[in-house]
Every structure is written in structure tokens, then in C-alpha cells.
């Protein structure tokens, strides 16, 4: 009897787990992939993961890492990346602004995603190209679309 109850509990647990997985990751459609990438971009920006070199090495293509390295203009003893290319490129907070650094919007645009955010109060828009390679989200390129100076 105990074995039967244990078996029933395990089956119910397995069924509940599958149901939870289905709710978290509904059928993989282009929309859900797009939403996953938008969430990745938002988390990357809001948590400033683009400043973490381990994150960059894991999620950037070799071409983008080279671009970030080549854009770094300062002398360094090791490898350094121009991480500010993911933001507005401003070094100081905008006067009179509340220093917010937060994602405002991410939209799919063909093979690219366009994001608008605040960087220390400066509003800017960048484009980012994302690929999914071997189940990992890989950033292939990032470039400025519009940086506001006022």
C-alpha cells in the first residue's frame, strides 16, 4: 500500500512539473523566442551584465568581442572591452536627471532588436543582433541608432 501511495505521489508530482514547464515555456513559436530574446536584452541592460567580461565571453560572438576590444582606446595590460557601446556612451550623469539606468523598450526589427533605454538619465536607442547557437543566446553585433544629447 505504501508503494502505491508513493507511486501516485510521484506521478502527480511529475504531472504538475510538466504543467509548470508548459506554463513557463509554451510551445516554441517565433513569438516566444522573440520574447525570450527581449527578456535577455532587458535583463542584460538592467543588471549591467554587459560590464561583466565573463558574461561577454559567454554571450558575444568572437567578431563582437573583437569589435569591443578594438573600440577600447586606453592602454591596458590585458584584454579590455568598450562596454559603453551597449549604452549611451556618456561618461557622466545627465544634469537634473535622476541617474536612472533602465530599459524602456525592446522591439524586434528583422534580424535585429532595437532597444531604447536610459543611461544615467541619458535616453538613447541601440540596435543589437542576436543569434541562438547551440541553445545559447549569442550577441553578434551592437550599434547606436540614436543618442540624445538633451
Task: Compose a concise summary of this entry.
37% of the residues lie in helices and 27% in strands. The chain has helices at residues 2-24, 30-46, 53-59, 62-70; strands at residues 102-109, 112-119, 122-133, 136-147. The model is unreliable at 4-11 and 13-30 (pLDDT under 50).
Explain the overall architecture.
This protein has 150 residues and is of the alpha+beta class. It has helices at residues 2-24, 30-46, 53-59, 62-70; strands at residues 102-109, 112-119, 122-133, 136-147. The protein has a four-stranded antiparallel sheet. It starts with a helix and ends with a strand. Mean pLDDT is 82; it is low at 4-11 and 13-30.
List the helices and strands and how they pair.
Layout: H1 2-24, H2 30-46, H3 53-59, H4 62-70, E1 102-109, E2 112-119, E3 122-133, E4 136-147
Antiparallel strand pairs: 1-2, 2-3, 3-4
Ranges with pLDDT <50 over ≥5 residues?
A: 4-11, 13-30
CATH names the topology as Nuclear Transport Factor 2, Chain: A
Helix and strand composition category: alpha+beta
CATH architecture descriptor name? Roll
Task: Summarize the biggest pleated sheet.
Answer: 4 strands, antiparallel
User: Into how many domains do the coordinates divide?
Assistant: 1
* CATH structural class: Alpha Beta
User: What shape does the CA trace take?
Assistant: globular
Instruction: Provide a count of the helices.
Output: 4
Global mean pLDDT: 82
Strand order of the largest sheet: 1-2-3-4
> What is the N-to-C order of secondary-structure elements (H for helix, E for strand)?
HHHHEEEE
Amino acid at each position: 500500500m505504501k508503494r502505491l501511495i508513493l507511486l501516485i505521489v510521484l506521478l502527480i508530482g511529475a504531472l504538475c512539473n510538466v504543467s509548470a514547464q508548459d506554463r513557463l515555456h509554451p510551445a516554441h513559436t517565433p513569438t516566444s523566442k522573440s520574447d525570450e530574446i527581449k527578456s535577455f536584452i532587458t535583463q542584460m541592460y538592467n543588471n549591467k551584465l554587459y560590464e561583466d567580461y565573463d558574461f561577454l565571453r559567454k554571450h558575444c560572438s568572437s567578431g563582437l568581442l573583437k569589435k569591443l576590444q578594438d573600440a577600447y582606446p586606453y592602454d591596458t595590460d590585458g584584454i579590455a572591452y568598450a562596454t559603453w557601446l551597449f549604452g549611451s556612451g556618456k561618461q557622466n550623469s545627465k544634469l537634473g536627471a535622476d541617474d536612472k539606468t533602465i530599459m524602456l523598450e525592446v522591439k524586434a526589427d528583422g534580424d535585429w532588436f532595437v532597444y531604447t533605454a536610459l543611461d544615467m538619465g541619458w535616453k538613447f536607442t541601440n540596435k543589437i543582433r542576436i543569434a541562438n547557437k547551440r541553445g545559447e543566446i549569442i550577441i553578434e553585433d551592437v550599434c547606436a541608432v540614436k543618442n540624445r544629447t538633451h
